[in-house]
Design a protein that fits this description.
The protein is mainly α. Helix content is 58%, strand content 0%.
């Protein structure tokens, strides 16, 4: 896997007394690498196609409506 990211200006602490790259650079790079890794893994995942028939949808909606009606009845 190859990951490329840009080093932005605010990632480097120019005022650091020893001139080394700050911990901010390290944390930004780590976040960028994690995001790139997750993105590439998700691209490779095959998500199964889900099909819902009109009949199944109608049944689910009616069941939910009935549940709400029962909840309202028990509250009053």
């Amino acid at each position: 896997m190859k990951v490329y990211f840009e080093v932005k200006e605010d990632w480097v602490d120019a005022e650091s007394p020893d001139g080394f790259i700050s911990m901010t650079m390290r944390s930004h790079a780590l976040i960028a690498l994690k995001e790139a890794f997750v993105e590439q893994v998700l691209k490779k995942q095959k998500i199964p196609k889900i099909t819902i028939s009109h009949k199944e949808l109608k049944k689910a909606v009616l069941e939910r409506m009935a549940e709400r009606a029962i909840e309202e009845q028990t509250r009053t």
